[in-house]
């Protein structure tokens, strides 16, 4: 596991990432490997067979922490992002005016 620029990279096979109080805890074979406060994270990248608890996914979505899921070779599988706020009509209007 590496923690670089507010991104946590989980690469240990069969790791389990879950929520413990206000921290993300990573266990391997039921032993604690790493524990990082959620307010230090901007994203979590998981390589291979990593289990993630639903409570952690919900909390990260609420806090704006993104998840990226990659297979063991590093190919993109999925991404979990929190809701994006903004006025779509104002954004589309600005895009159409700039393309003229």
TrEMBL record:
It comes from the Bacteria. GO terms for molecular function: endonuclease activity; hydrolase activity; metal ion binding; nucleic acid binding. It holds the Pfam family Cas_Cas1. The keyword Magnesium applies. Keywords: Antiviral defense, Endonuclease, Hydrolase, Magnesium, Metal-binding, Nuclease. One of its GO terms (biological process) is defense response to virus. This is CRISP-associated protein Cas1.
């Amino acid at each position: 596991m590496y923690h670089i620029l507010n991104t946590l990279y989980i690469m240990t096979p069969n790791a389990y990432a879950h929520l413990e109080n206000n921290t993300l805890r990573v266990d391997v074979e039921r032993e604690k490997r790493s524990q990082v406060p959620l307010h230090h994270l901007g994203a979590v990248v998981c390589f291979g067979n990593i289990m993630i608890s639903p409570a952690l996914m919900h909390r990260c979505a609420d806090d704006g922490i993104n998840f990226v899921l990659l297979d063991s070779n590093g190919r993109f599988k999925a991404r979990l992002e929190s809701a994006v706020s903004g006025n779509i009509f104002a954004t589309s209007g600005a895009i159409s005016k700039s393309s003229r």
